[in-house]
């Protein structure tokens, strides 16, 4: 549903803010958890991160003072020389000079690595060995297209049910419109009959060429094993137009096709009947409306 | 194109304790690291301290450098950014301490390492994309990246609704992403040429 899509828009925004390390601590943890199961967000981050990192390249370039080189070499190699002469200690963990900085940068890097792993898992092998040069570029562009396609398909999947529902509504609206707009359309108010639930009202729009558009309000949902049935009242007796859909008791308009070969109706009725409907109405007739005679 | 294989060898030599390799690494990357630190800290002496810390860490962690996670330049710049932002935050926590002198600007084209750490056309494309952003998008990105503010702080700073800031950050970053090629985004340049 749309709530899902909206939720995911929030994650996509967070992916961008995460790429800039600008989420608050709690949001950052939430996003990292989300990304473990959301390939779309992992892929999004994988392409947004270089865009964020590229900001480092846009600053005005300044040359440091030449003395800085000697100072750095003296400080780094001078103090570390004793340690580094021993090859076994080459990977000695860093002294805790700036633990915050290290932890701050390791997490995003870890997640980037995870994102890359996830992409590899579905065959986006852009990191595979041996890809280089022109072939490499072409393949990675192809892979990006695939990733975009996968992302789009995922979104399409999420919106498919929304789309189907919208299509149904559209179809319904079109057939209603066809009835309302028909030149031979007549509107009939349907009045509650004795024994009808309180407040029930109905409206029928009838077009001999397009059918019956019926709208009822304040009708309680049918009891179990019961249905509401719609009737065309003709000179030859009532003819069933069909069952009122169970959810159409709230003012929604439902269109019924005129039964083939039935005589022209003089009015319409709605009754409560055993589930599935009956050939002739019983005693629980709740709504009746008669077509005014044409002048 | 970055040439990662020589850089990887440089890191391998550093891991083995070769001081000359550190000098080479410094000569290639110090300018970019220093420039980023200056941009964030607006202080020559603080930026110099960051440069020293970044290369000290590179020296210590050379053996742990993972080429699959990005270029050496990216690795160093990420450290530079992180350490600069940490200093900036510490400085904000002591507001009474004024910033020190502004660094002397040195022309971009002045003497310096000839080796490019990034492709000039890529930096230029990103720069142009940044310049072309609407003011709010650009400012939001800059406050996040160069000032280390969270999106909540940015919204307060700019007196804008949080939702607006979130949207602007994303829009801005998407435009920067457009300025990068598919290969750059998907990390093709990270694929090392075998030695």
Would you kindly provide a written description of the structure presented here, covering whatever features stand out?
The complex is a heterodimer of chains A (295) and B (195). Chain A is built from 6 helices and 8 strands. Chain A has 295 residues and is α+β, with helices and mostly antiparallel strands. Chain A folds into 2 domains: 2-89 and 100-122; 186-290. In chain A, helix 1 packs across helix 2 (25-37), helix 1 (2-19) packs parallel to helix 3 and helix 2 (25-37) crosses helix 3. Mean pLDDT of chain A is 75; it is low at 1-5, 82-105 and 122-134. Chain B is mostly helical and 195 residues long. Chain B has 2 domains: 1-117, Orthogonal Bundle (Rna Polymerase Sigma Factor, Chain: A), CATH 1.10.1740; 119-195, Arc Repressor Mutant, subunit A. Chain B is built from 9 helices and no strands. In chain B, helix 5 runs antiparallel to helix 8. Residues 104-118 and 186-195 of chain B have low confidence and may be disordered. The interface between A and B is large, with 69 and 90 residues.
- Cα shape of chain B: globular
Q: Report the end-to-end length of chain A measured between terminal Cα atoms.
A: 50 Å
Give, in order, the helices and strands of chain A. Answer: HHHHHHEEEEEEEE
Shape of chain A: rod-shaped
Order of helices and strands of chain B: HHHHHHHHH
SS-derived structural category of chain A = alpha+beta
CATH architecture verdict of the largest domain in chain B: Orthogonal Bundle
């Amino acid at each position: 549903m749309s709530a899902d899509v909206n939720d995911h828009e929030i994650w996509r925004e967070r992916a961008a803010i995460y790429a800039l390390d600008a989420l608050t601590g709690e949001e950052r943890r939430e996003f990292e958890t989300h990304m473990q199961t959301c390939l779309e967000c992992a892929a999004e981050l994988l392409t947004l991160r270089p865009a964020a990192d590229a900001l480092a390249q846009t600053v005005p370039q300044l040359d440091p003072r030449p003395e800085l080189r000697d100072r750095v070499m003296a400080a780094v190699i001078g103090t570390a020389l004793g340690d580094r002469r021993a090859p076994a200690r080459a990977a000695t963990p860093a002294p805790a000079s700036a633990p915050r900085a290290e932890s701050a940068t390791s997490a995003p890097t870890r997640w980037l690595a995870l994102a890359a792993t996830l992409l590899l898992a579905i065959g986006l092998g852009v990191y595979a060995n041996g890809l280089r040069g022109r072939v490499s570029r072409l393949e990675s562009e192809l892979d990006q297209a695939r990733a975009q396609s996968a992302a789009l398909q995922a979104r399409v999947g999420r919106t498919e049910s929304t789309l189907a529902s919208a299509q149904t509504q559209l179809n319904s609206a079109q057939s209603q419109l066809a009835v309302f707009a028909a030149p031979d359309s007549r509107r009939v108010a349907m009045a509650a009959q004795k024994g009808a639930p309180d407040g029930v009202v109905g409206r029928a729009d009838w077009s001999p060429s397009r059918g019956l558009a019926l709208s009822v309000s304040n009708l309680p949902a049918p009891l179990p094993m019961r249905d509401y049935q719609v009737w065309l009242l003709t000179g030859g007796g009532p003819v069933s137009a069909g069952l009122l859909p169970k959810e159409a008791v709230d003012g929604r308009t439902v269109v019924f096709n005129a039964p083939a070969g039935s005589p022209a109706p003089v009015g319409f009725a709605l009754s409560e009947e055993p589930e599935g409907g009956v050939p002739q109405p019983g005693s629980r007739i709740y709504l009746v409306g008669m077509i005014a005679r044409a002048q | 194109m970055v040439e990662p294989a020589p850089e990887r060898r440089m890191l391998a030599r550093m891991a083995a304790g070769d001081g000359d390799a550190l000098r080479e690494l410094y000569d290639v990357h110090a300018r970019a690291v220093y420039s980023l630190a200056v941009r964030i800290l607006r202080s020559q002496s603080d930026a110099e301290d960051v440069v020293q810390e970044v290369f000290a860490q590179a020296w210590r962690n050379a053996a742990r450098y993972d080429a699959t996670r990005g270029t050496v330049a990216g690795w160093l710049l990420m450290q530079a950014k992180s350490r600069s932002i940490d200093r900036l935050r510490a400085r904000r926590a002591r507001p009474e301490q004024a910033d020190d002198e502004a660094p002397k600007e040195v022309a971009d084209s002045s003497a310096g390492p000839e080796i490019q750490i990034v492709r000039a056309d890529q930096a230029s494309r990103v720069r142009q994309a940044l310049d072309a952003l609407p003011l709010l998008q650009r400012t939001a990105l800059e406050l996040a990246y160069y000032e280390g503010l969270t999106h909540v702080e940015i919204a307060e700073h700019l007196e804008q609704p949080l939702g607006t800031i979130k949207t602007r950050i994303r829009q801005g970053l998407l435009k920067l992403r457009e300025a990068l090629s598919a290969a750059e985004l998907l990390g093709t340049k990270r694929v090392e040429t075998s030695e």
